[in-house]
Amino acid sequence: MTAVRAKLDVPTCETVIAGAMRAWINGDGVDFASHFTEDADLVNIHGMHIRGRQAIAMALAGIVALAAIPKGKPPEAEIRE
For residue 75, what pLDDT is reported? Predict the structure, then answer.
């Protein structure tokens, strides 16, 4: 008897990262959060712990609103001398 493993429809890491980056650049919190599990944990760069897909979506919406980040393009880097 030979065991056959079914191929799961699981996205690759590259697909997930590309999708999350696209959503972040577009300021789309719902799309960004869709790349996380329902009970996901996210710790942002300030050390704030965000738990759950809905909270992650709301956090990105808040960041976009506060920063007034233009949608559709990444922020420009500025090098200070």
Answer: 58
